[in-house]
Amino acid sequence: MKFVAFERAKQGTGASRRLRNTGKTPGIVYGGEGQPQLIELDHNALWHALKKETFHSSILDMELAGKEAKVLLRDVQYHPYKQQVTHIDFQRVDAKTKLHMKVPFHYVKAEESQAVKFESCVVNHVMSELDISCLPADLPEFIEVDLSSMKKGMSLHLNEITLPKGVTAVTRGKPNPVLVSVVQIGGEEAVEAGAADAAAAAGADAKAAPAKDAKAAPAKDAKAAPAKDAKAAAPAKKK
Fold first, then answer.
1. pLDDT tens digit sequence for 80-139
2. At 2, which helix (H) or strand (E)?
3. CA 69 to CA 52: how far, in whole Å?
4. CA neighbor of 109 nearest in space, from 145, 72, 84, 80
5. pTM of the predicted model as reported, rounded to 2 decimal places
6. Strands across the sheet with 178-184, in order?
């Protein structure tokens, strides 16, 4: 991916603020055989470039003062609440020196797996990217992982995938981390549990209904009987 940068003569907080007000973003390029160099970039073009995964994980072609150089994006600083890039750092790439980068995983074919198609499961992505070490020529834009063989209860570890040629994983403390795990979200067990709950509820309603009728009947008869007797007895007493 190619982008254009321009030389920046002034530095400091005030100069950078004035630069941002004109729609530019201050930056720096360092590393390699050259000295650190101050640069500026068009903010709108940079903003759209940063939305692309390639800009973060691949070697970039930077055009500066009519010359091209291979660089890597190393740091981006954003405004706390504005949609604005306040500063950006790039590192020059030496073809003979190994570099250390974070590369994203691209998980594919999960929907074709037995876990998803037949076992009511989802494949949970535990890791979204991987620290790697390699020469610039071997740097991949992403690492593709096939999930079509996943089944219920399975987990996929780092040592179970094949990394691109020349790429070495950099792990800290966990030599064989989990990349994805299969989690069940429904299926026959959930259906059976739901049916059992419905049956229990129906049984409870059937048991409660006779008791309600039995309780109501005596109360009605008891209340009506005294009133009838009292009305009939009153005339007889008067005579």
1. 999 999 999 999 998 889 999 999 999 999 999 999 999 999 999 999 999 999 999 999
2. strand 2-7
3. 20
4. 145
5. 0.69
6. 121-125, 178-184, 155-157
